């Protein structure tokens, strides 16, 4: 697998755009894109304080693969709690902001 880059997954949602299966096409600043990948690693759910100061939000870190390269993804909120129920080897489709 090639080098690991990092991205933030902000929510799981249906999309009308074509999902990205090839991570080499990802560029910094891309917004509201769908990425598809195989889960290689899943970290534990952790809770961080919201920037607004009202409560906490769940976060899960994952390593995803497009079968030729990998990215490190941080999943937030409901995406984190849903992803935490997955197993290594499962496939995932998430909206992302890079």
Number of contiguous helices:
1
Order of helices and strands: EEEEEHE
Which consecutive residue ranges, at least 5 long each, have pLDDT under 50? none
N/C terminus separation: 20 Å
- In one word, what is the shape? globular
Q: Which key features would you list for this structure?
A:
6% helix, mainly beta, 47% strand, five-stranded mixed barrel, 1 helix, 98 residues
Description:
The structure is a single chain. The model has no long low-confidence stretch (mean pLDDT 78). β3 (46-49) and β4 (56-65) form a beta hairpin. The radius of gyration is 13 Å and the shape is globular. The longest helix has 6 residues, at 78-83. The protein is built from one helix and six strands, in the order βββββαβ. It has one helix at 78-83, and strands at 4-11, 33-42, 46-49, 56-65, 70-76, 91-97. It has a five-stranded mixed barrel. By secondary structure, it is mainly beta.
List the helices and strands and how they pair.
Layout lengths: L3 E8 L21 E10 L3 E4 L6 E10 L4 E7 L1 H6 L7 E7 L1
Parallel strand pairs: 1-5
Antiparallel strand pairs: 1-6, 2-4, 2-6, 3-4, 4-5
